[in-house]
Design goal:
This protein has 570 residues and is of the alpha+beta class. It folds into four domains: 12-64 and 98-116, no CATH class; 150-285, Sulfite Reductase Hemoprotein, domain 1; 295-346, no CATH class; 362-551, Sulfite Reductase Hemoprotein, domain 1. Helices cover 31% and strands 18% of the residues. The protein contains 17 helices and 20 strands. The strands form four sheets. The chain has a five-stranded antiparallel sheet. A five-stranded antiparallel sheet has the order 3-14-15-12-11. Strands 6, 7, 8, 9 and 10 form a five-stranded mixed sheet that branches. The protein is globular, with a radius of gyration of 25 Å. Residues 555-568 have low confidence and may be disordered.
Length: 570
Amino acid sequence: MQNNDLSPKLNKREKYKARLRPYDYFSELENLDFENLGEGDRFYLQDFGIFTTDFLEDEFTMRVRVPAGRLSAEQFSYIAQVVDEYELTIIITARAGLQLHKLEAGNVLEIWKKLNAHRLTTWQSFGDNIRNIVSNVYDGRGKYSEIETYPIIMQMQDYIVKNPRYVGMLPRRVSIGVSGNRASITSFFANDLYFALALKDGIYGFNVYMGGKNTEIAKDADIFLLKEEVLDFFKAFVEAFYLHGSRSSRSKTRLFYMIESIGLDALKLHIEKEYGKAFQSGGKIQLEKVVFSQHEKLKDGTFAYCYQTDFARLDAKEMKQISSFALEHKVDIRLGIDQNIYLLGLKDTITPFDSPKKSATIITCAGSLCPYSFWSIKNETKYLPLDKISQHSITVGFSGCIKGCGRHRHTDIGLVGLKTNNFGDTEGGARVFVGAVHTDGLSISRMLFSMVPLVHLHKTLELIIELYELSGYKNFEEFSDTVLNRYSEGFLALWVLANLQTKQAIKLDPVDSGFEYEKSLLKENFSEVDFIEPIEESFAPAVSALSKKMWTVAGVDPIYKPKLNRVNFR
């Protein structure tokens, strides 16, 4: 570990680690006064799955690791009992774990002991650790599965969890995805480290991708690993990041910034030194776009059922119902990174119980349950055209703040909750992103609107989906790649606004455009629209003015003032 003293260059968290390792702090857990925690206590507790903040001191969150989203019906039932007994709120995380909310100072330690004594672990589910390791929900059983990754993931977890050298001691958190499937439910390219199914010399293995995060795509490291080599690579990677990752500015400690600083080749050399032998060059990645149905046939002839949650929210009653069914019918329970619950091993395509919501392709952050979220994502989903989203299996990432836990830049349509007074007295709104080509990790989405007030969000998204329907492409990702990404963000925003104002939906063709061509398209199709600001060298002023004119919902807009007798195009 670099900078293992109290150097001023160390960020605040690193100074705590230098004074006392989180693993050594663990012995103090039993005697903590949870009603009077200091900043250091809150920092250390994250490494054992307990989270609180200085502005929500009396309320605690606890996260349970669920490797690869797999847990037994007995475990699922036990967690439901705990939730029921202590009147907690529970959600499925975007990493296929379980997160318990509304614990109190008087019961948090008691609940922690109960969970960790029941073949469950909360260790290293927060903090500067290897977080819950994810995989494809049909791992080993789906018709697209070539390598079962669960045994590898368990080896990786056994190596890292409760390892004194690494508990809370990494420079920053690391997210890891391992998929042995040719098709996945959602993209894994948002992970810091992604082992993707690949083929080389007729043998299935994994290509390595590194440096992804919620707002960036993991880069191809040009490394191919056989399945029996993944664990050793993982160990080498963890040690290299531990030794060489930055521990100074907290905002620059993720793996992405390490690659940005020293380059991918230098990072590979650090890992190769720990690995002990030269790497093979990458194989051919095996990924294809597949849309899964609510019932899927598995390799062994049995079936899977996708139970669509209430946007990741669960209650004890439905958890008990699901676990009782799983026990009675001897089926497996798996949590997906799409925040839905899958029952594998059904004898037929039955629907054991109806889903509460149409949420199969919508990923949401914790919303109002998280202190950083601007508003309640789970409730604001009422502003989405859910029927259209479900009909076309459009993936939507819904984040409550710019941290992006809903992976809004790795989905077909991305939303970030915001509050602003730019549109008058609004209750909030969403930043809107489109255009991600996420299956193959080719591109993240681009921002279409910096803010759409909630009351206008449904119509805006409905129009975007209608433009997709007019395109004739078989999925929204193909529409993004072939049509949307050929146009500038400013033009697309004005195109949507002009269609909304004129109550039309005019199709966009897949052409290689430029600014002058885009300007002529607007003039040709919307000559009657008052864009207010002249379009000279940029679309941005016109987008800002027209959106404020159309979307100011109450009171007096503090920014927009009508400008009369403007010429629209220059």
